[in-house]
Amino acid sequence: MKEKNKSGNGFLVQGSILAGAAILAKVIGMLYRVPLQNILGNQGNGYYSTANEVYAILLMVSCFNMPLAVSRLVSARVHRGEYRNAHRVFLCAVRFSMLLGGSIALVTYVCAGFITKYMMSMELAVYGLRVLAPAIFISAILGTFRGYFQGYGTMVPTAFSQVIEQIVNAVVSLICANIMYSYGEILAASEGNASLAPAWGAAGATFGTVASITVALIIMMLIYLAQAKSLRTRMRKDHTGVRESSADIYRELIVTILPVILSTVVYNITNVLDLGVFSNILQRQGYSEDQATTIWGIYSGQFRVLMNVPLALASSLSPSVVPSLTAAMEKRDKADARRKVSSSIRFTMLLTIPCAAGMAALAEPIITMLFTNETGTPLSVGIMQVGSLMIIFYALSTLSTGILQGLGRMRQPLIHCCIALVIHLAALYILLTTFTLNIYSVVIANIIFAVIISFLNAVSIARFLNYRQEIYRTFVVPAIVSIIMAAAAYLVYTAVHTFLGNTVSTFLAVIAGVAVYGIGMVSFHGVTQEEIAALPKGTAIIRILRKMGLLR
After folding, report:
1. Residue 6: which pLDDT band, with cuts at 50, 70 and 90?
2. pLDDT at 157
3. At 438, is the secondary structure helix, strand, or coil?
4. DSSP SS3 for 178
5. Which pLDDT does position 502 carry in this prediction?
C-alpha cells in the first residue's frame, strides 16, 4: 500500500475520488428508488424510510463513525512511522466493532416491534427493521477496513466498494421488493389488512442493504489480503521501538469515538424525532396514520433521496480531510491546517451551492421525470423548492463537523448539535401547531438546525486556528453565478420542453446550467488557475478553458 501524499491539496484529490464514487453511488441509489417508489407506493415507502431511519441511528451508535475514528488514529501513527501500532489499532477496532455491532444487532432484532410501534408510530415497519438488524453487525466490521485504508490517505478501496455496494443494493432491493410485495398481497387478502402488502414489500427492499454490505465487506477483505505483503514490509521497517498495548488502544479508541458517536447521533437523530413529532401532531390534527405515512413518504422518499446526491460531496470530503488535518496537527502546523480548511470549504461550496439552485429551479421537471405522476407531485415540488437551502447548510455543517474532529476538537460538535437540536425541536413544534405548515415545518426546522451548527462550528474553528473564512470567492461569487445558472437552466427548459418532452428538456437544461456555471465562475474570477490545476484532470480542464478564451 502506498502512503499518499498529504501535503498541499492532495487530500482534495483523494476527497474528489471518494466524492465521485459517492455521487455515483447516490445517483444509482436515487435511480433505483424511483422504481422502488413505484413498487411500494407512498405508504410502503413510508415504512421503508422509517425502518432505514431507525437503522441509520442504530448504525451510528454501533459503527458509523468507526472509519473516522480508525482513520484518525491510524493516520497519527503512520505520520510518526509507527506502522506496527497502526496495524494494532486496526485489529483492536475489528474486535471492538464485532462486539458492539453484534450486541446492537441482536437488541435491534428483539426490540424491533417496540421501536416501530411505540417510538415511531408505524408498527408495520417492524418487518423491514428486523431484516436490517444483521446489517448493523456487518457494517461494523466493514467500517474498520475502510477507516484503516483512509488512515493511510487512500480513498480508492472505500470508493470502489461503495459503488459496488450500491449496485448490488439496487438490484437486490428491486427483486426482493417485488417478491415480498406479492407475498404481502396474499397475506393482505387472507387477513383483511391492505397495509400488509406495502409493509412486506418494504421488508423485501431492506434486504438489498444486507446483501450489498456483505458484498462490500468481502471486497474490502480481498483488497486487504492483496495488500498484506506490502503491509508486512512496512511493519518490518518500523524501528520506532514504540509498542502500544491493546488496553491503551481500546481506551484511545473509546475516547476518540464516543464524542463522535454522540455528536453524530444527535446530528442525525433529527429525522427520527421529526417523524415521531410530525406523525403524532398530524394525527391529533385529524390526519389518519396512513395519510401521515404517505406525506412523510413523499418527503423522505423523494426530496431527501435527491438531496443526498449533492450532500455526498461534503460527506465524502470529511473522510479525506480528517486524516489530513490530523497529520497537520501532529506536526503542529496550524498554517497548513488553515489552508486545508479553506480549500475544503471552498471546494464544497463551489459544488453544493449550484446544486441547490439548480434543484430549486428545475424542481418540477426533475420530480416529474423521476417519479410517477401521483397526487403528491405538487407537494414534492414545493418541498424541494423550500428545502434547497438545506443542501447548502447541511453540507457546510457536515464538513465543518469533520474539520473539528480532524483538529482533535471532539466535544465541540456534540455541544453544538445539542444546542441546535433543542432549538430545532422547539421550532418544529411551533411551526406544526401554531402555523400549521404541515411537512414544510420539518423542512424549515431542519434548515434552522443546520444553520446553527454551521455558525457554531465556524466560531470554534476560527478560535482554535485563528482562522478567518474568506467570504467573497467562497460564498458570494458561487451564489451570484448559481442564480444566473438557475435562470438559464429554467429558460432552456421552458423554451424546449413543449417540443422535446420533459426528460430530454430536463437533461438539456442541466447541461446548459453546468456550462453557464463553469463559464461564469471563471469569468467572475470565482476560481483561480491554480485551484483548477489542483483538481483531478485539472490540466486538461485548463487547456479546454484556454482554447475557449476564458483563461490566458
Report:
1. very low
2. 87
3. coil
4. helix
5. 92
Tell me which residue has cell 417540443. Answer: 499
Write the CB contacts of 80 (distance below 8 Å, at least 6 apart in sequence).
Answer: 240, 242, 330
- What count of other Cβ atoms lies within 10 Å of the Cβ of residue 46? 31
With H, G, I as helix, E, B as strand and everything else as coil, classify residue 8.
coil
CA distance 398 to 457: 10
**Which whole number is the average pLDDT over 37-47?**
82
Q: With b meaning 16 or more CB within 10 Å and e meaning fewer, what string describes 160-199?
A: bbbbbbbbbbbebbbebbbebbebbbeebeeeeeebbbbb
Torsion, Cα of 7, 12, 15, 21 (10° steps): -130
Contact 393, 420 (CB under 8 A): no
**pTM check: above 0.85:** no
- Where does 285-333 have alpha helices with state H? 289-298, 304-330
Q: pLDDT value at position 430?
A: 97
* Cβ partners under 8 Å of residue 225, min gap 6: none
Closest CA to 315 of 213, 195, 395: 395
List, in order, residues 6 or more apart from 502 with CB less than 8 Å away.
365, 368, 369
Place of cell 487530500: 11
Residues in CB range of 236: below 8 A, 6 or more apart: none
Close Cβ partners of 544 (under 8 Å, ≥ 6 residues apart): none
Question: What phi, psi does 225 have (nearest 5°)?
Answer: -65, -35
Pick the closest to residue 25 from 131, 140, 135, 170 (CA basis): 170
